[in-house]
């Protein structure tokens, strides 16, 4: 490697005027600034990509939760229909067409539960990316929709827990002949069901379990959260 001729350097520097010093320092400062600005730009672009990728995960997670929500709602609506039918006729099953009762033959044994996931949201919360998102209203909306799902889970599973607590002891008291009769689902089956006071009281619950339009409002809030992510980050 060629050695630096410091005597020559000193000679050159001694010949500089003040504006030469200013020019050289300016070149160095500008070079440093450009380096920092370039590095910051790369970092910000990387953060934007990471945020968009995480929001895509949250969107897909909410869509999956929406499907689970629709499934459990469809299940519950069958209980609701039966409850409304029995309540409408004041539990006087002989005035209800037997075929209408038979379609609910196995329904009393259906015990379900609702679950949802929030892994994608947890990833966002545990990362430094959350601090980089300027749209705080969107963050609040996302946090709130998972709280809505949690409340829905508690309420829906509360119904099925109640159903399990009623139907399990009831089923354990049945004879083989009675069990066979329940599978038929006709008048005799419902005579057996309604002869039990706990079952009799429980079948009135479903059609008034949720306040009016509650289920519809939950679904719309999930949809709005998904739409907000799609519009903000141009996701389809």
Secondary-structure topology with pairs:
Blueprint: H1 6-14, H2 18-88, H3 98-102, H4 119-126, H5 136-172, H6 176-184, H7 187-194, H8 197-202, H9 214-233
Order of helices and strands: HHHHHHHHH
Shape designation: elongated
Q: Tell how many strands the DSSP assignment holds.
A: 0
Q: Flag low-confidence runs.
A: 39-43
**C-alpha Rg, in Å?**
34 Å
What about the largest sheet? none
Beta-strand share of residues: under 5%
- Multimer state: single chain
Which class best fits the helix and strand makeup? Answer: mainly alpha
- Structure annotation, total helices: 9
How far do the termini sit from each other?
Answer: 58 Å
Helix content range: over 70%
Give a quick precis of the structure.
By secondary structure, the protein is mainly alpha-helical. It contains nine helices and no strands.
Structure in words:
The protein has helices spanning 6-14, 18-88, 98-102, 119-126, 136-172, 176-184, 187-194, 197-202, 214-233. It contains nine helices and no strands. Helix content is 73%, strand content 0%. By secondary structure, it is mainly α. The chain crosses the membrane at residues 21-39.
Record keyword descriptors for this entry.
single chain, 236 residues, mainly alpha, 9 helices, 73% helix, transmembrane helix, transmembrane, membrane
């Amino acid at each position: 490697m060629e050695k630096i001729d410091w005597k020559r350097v000193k000679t050159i520097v001694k010949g500089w005027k003040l504006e030469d010093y200013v020019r050289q320092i300016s070149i160095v400062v500008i070079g440093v600034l450009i380096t920092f600005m370039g590095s910051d730009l790369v970092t910000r672009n990387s953060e934007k990509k990471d945020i968009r990728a995480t929001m895509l995960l949250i969107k897909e997670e909410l869509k999956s939760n929406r499907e689970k929500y629709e499934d459990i709602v469809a299940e519950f609506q069958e209980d609701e229909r039966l409850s409304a039918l029995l309540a409408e006729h004041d539990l006087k099953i002989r005035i209800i067409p037997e075929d209408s009762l038979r379609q609910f033959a196995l329904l009393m044994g259906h015990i379900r539960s609702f679950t949802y996931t929030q892994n994608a949201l947890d990833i966002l919360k545990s990362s430094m990316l959350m601090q980089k998102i300027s749209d705080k209203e969107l963050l609040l909306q996302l946090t709130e929709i998972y709280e809505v799902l949690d409340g829905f889970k508690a309420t829906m599973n509360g119904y099925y827990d109640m159903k399990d607590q009623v139907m399990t002891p009831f089923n354990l008291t049945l004879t083989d002949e009675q069990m066979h009769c329940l599978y038929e689902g006709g008048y005799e089956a419902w005579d057996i069901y309604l002869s039990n006071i706990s079952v009799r009281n429980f079948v009135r619950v479903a059609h008034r379990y949720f306040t009016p339009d509650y289920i519809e409002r939950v679904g719309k809030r999930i949809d709005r959260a998904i739409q907000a992510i799609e519009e903000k980050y141009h996701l389809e």
